Amino acid sequence: MNKYSVLIISGAAFWGTMGIFSRGAEKLGFTTVEAAAMRIIWAALILAVIMLIKDKNIFKVALRDLPLLAAVGIVSVFAMSVFYLSAISSASMSVAAILLYTAPFFVTAASAVLYKEKITLRTACALVLAFLGCVLIAGIGGRVTPLGLFYGLMAGITYASYSILGKKALVKYSPYTVTLWAFIFAAASALFVINPFTIVTKVSQSGLQSILLTMLMGLVTAVIPFLLYTLGLKYTDAGKASIMATTEPMVATVAGMVVFHEIPGVVSSVGIILVIFAIALLNNFGIAVKK
Question: Lowest CB count within 10 Å: 37, 188, 229, 263, which one?
Fold first, then answer.
């Protein structure tokens, strides 16, 4: 496994801790949408401060490239969160999670057309195994509605767009610049879905605890994973990167087991094994498959 694969998988692992923070935010009285918006806003602020200290040139982009970076932030980061939360509300968490992880199919197909990435037998097998693993981890069943299916598929498409659009932006800009501007635009969009006065009221009621929790949520589940994933994406085929990111639900399951003592069943355990096997297949861990 090369270092870029490690970056991608590590980023997905940080994404997998989202449930820990979202449950904490819920206990403090924040809705899911409010917590998601605050996560994005904090991430933008933290990234801006880090990049100002690191190198102010990271902020520099050509005006003609702002629409692309805006698309990454508004569509791939903000809209994905909105569609995913809407899918959970309209269907169920399991259905939403399964539909979200249709993303690697969209990425692989689009990358083959846009970036001429070859779809090898190895990649195809890993793609199917990873998706089946995600289905088993999320759980088969759950409430299904037409609106829920629509929101879920849109979540998968917008989630996939980060790898597709991000790959294009990375041709010209560093991973730091792409991630920074993506969150600047995402944060600006997030301000439209929350009531600032309501947020201020809830923060004043819960005090420093809510500030630290949401700030940490932005750092651990947004800043760190998006930087790691984008750094790895720059040097990895978008399709393969998207498949490797399916470690997220696996880590989420393990996190639930460790923190909340939620012991996964046999089906979920098989799903975890399939995801691990898919990643091993992509990284040539002694598995012979003709390309």
Answer: 263
